[in-house]
Amino acid sequence: MRKFAVLTEAKNAEVHEGNIPEVGDNQVLINQKTCNICTTDYGQWLGLREHQPYPMAGGHEGGGVIVEKGKNVRDELNVGDHVALAYDYCGECQNCQIGQTSQCTEVLNPFKDKNDEGYYGHLGFANYATKNANAVVKMNKNISFSEIGFLEPLATVVSGMKKLRVSAMETVVVIGAGTMGVLNAQVAKAFGADVIVTEMMDKKIDAARELDFKVIDVKKDDPVEQIKSITNGKGADAVILAVGNTKANEQAIEMVKEIDGRVLLFAAGHPPPSLNVDSNLIHYRKLELLGTYGANIKDFNESATLINENIIDVSKLIEAKVSLNEIQEAYKVASTEGNYRVSVTLQ
Ligand SMILES: [Zn+2]
Ligand SMILES: [Zn+2]
Fold first, then answer.
1. Which ligand is nearest to the CA of 89?
2. CA dist 107 to 21, 87, 121, 316, Å?
3. Separation of 153 CA from ligand 1 center, angstroms?
4. Alpha helices in 49-125 (DSSP H)
5. Which ligand is nearest the CA of 294, by number?
6. Ligand 1 centroid distance, CA of 198 (Å)
7. 16 - beta bridge partners?
8. Which ligand sits nearest to residue 85's alpha carbon?
9. How many whole angstroms from its chain centre is CA 110?
10. Partner of 257 for a Cys bridge, out of 54, 63, 261, 322, CB 3.0 to 4.6 A?
11. Spatial separation of the C-alpha atoms in residues 31 and 64, rounded to whole Å
């Protein structure tokens, strides 16, 4: 039997059962041990993502063990290996061939297409799942399954960081120290940048400071003035928006350096924030406003190295572990403001 969590409507998560799926020639069967609850998941539970359909068998930040492999699966993957999951892709369409596997045109869109059992979603909160082997990433066995679940969010951060072209010695500001803010800060540091984080919640300020980041407490200090003063009036080379709100958008444009500053819009906000900006400013200041979303298989593989070699520490970003049977409680904790990731344990 496989068990998996399903949202039947906002505020209602249930555990459904079905058969363990057959393994295709190019697939592996994974006994998933954990799946972390992403903003996409709890946003829908809260009723804030009503563009996402029901019944939603969501979850996509899983970690597990290979228990069976198809006959065409590459030698590197074997029964007993610990693995994380990337996004499905065909490897052959035009987008895949240029490395843009997240824009593969040949795979089902789990937010638009139901599976054979009538569910939307990636079925991340399932104790067993089949997965195309090309989207399975091997992880070291000394990394916990809850930590393995950070591969996907980390890959999206690495993807954005490459687009932002962060280089050594640059000053990078990360606005917001939630899960994604802390991951962005750590990756920017791994790229060699001098990182400053801005945040208003004490709990998140403390967590970011424990990770050795300079943090501006925006309850006490004006973040734009502070960044200007730390950089001797110059402003930051790049700013990463790890929160989605209008005020933060405005701050980013004010605190980034006058000429050639780069701003990465990493986070979505619901309801959608605005960008109140005089477009002449973008022109004269030669500003770059960059968007990012998702990650390609190359980003997943690079991120696996960051976790496997302990370059990125995700251990502080696990708020709680809650069993699948208490999925309602898990969503409640996950959607409590200020909480980091909740890891759902799957029997
Ligand atoms: Zn996610
Ligand atoms: Zn493709």
1. 2
2. 18, 10, 13, 34
3. 5
4. 94-97
5. 1
6. 22
7. 4
8. 1
9. 17
10. 261
11. 5
Cα 113 to ligand 1 centre (Å): 19
Q: Which ligand is nearest to the CA of 90?
A: 2
Single out the residue of 307, 300, 288, 291 nearest to residue 99, CA to CA: 300
Q: How far is the CA of 238 from the centre of ligand 2 (A)?
A: 32
CB 224 within 8 A of CB 254: yes
Residue 29: the pLDDT is: 98
- Provide the pLDDT for residue 121: 95
pLDDT at 347 over 80: no
Cα 93 to ligand 2 centre (Å)? 4
As a whole number of angstroms, the distance between CA 104 and CA 207 comes to 37
Residues 6+ apart with CB under 8 A from 332: none
Can you read off the two tokens belonging to residue 99? 């490395």
How many residues does the structure list for the chain?
Answer: 347
The Cα–Cα gap between 327 and 144 comes to: 20
From the CA of 93, the nearest ligand is: 2
Say what the pLDDT of residue 50 is: 83
pLDDT digits (tens, 9 = 90+) for 2-26: 999 999 999 999 999 999 999 999 9
* DSSP code for 7: E
- For β-strands 214-217 and 318-323, DSSP reports them as unpaired
Distance of alpha carbon 8 from the chain centroid: 24
Instruction: Enter the tokens of residue 134.
Output: 């090309």
CA of 154 to the centre of ligand 1 (A): 9
Ligand with smallest separation from the Cα of 135: 2
CA pair distance 133, 135, nearest whole angstrom: 5
Using a cut of 0.70, tell me whether the model's pTM lies above it: yes
Q: Pick from 218, 161, 173: which is nearest to 197 by CA?
A: 173
Helix, strand counts (H, E) of the chain:
11, 15
**What is the Cα–Cα distance from 325 to 14, expressed in whole angstroms?**
8
Query: Which residues does residue 4 pair with via DSSP β-bridges, in sequence order?
Result: 16, 126
Task: For residue 90, report the distance from its CA to the centre of ligand 2, in Å.
Answer: 4
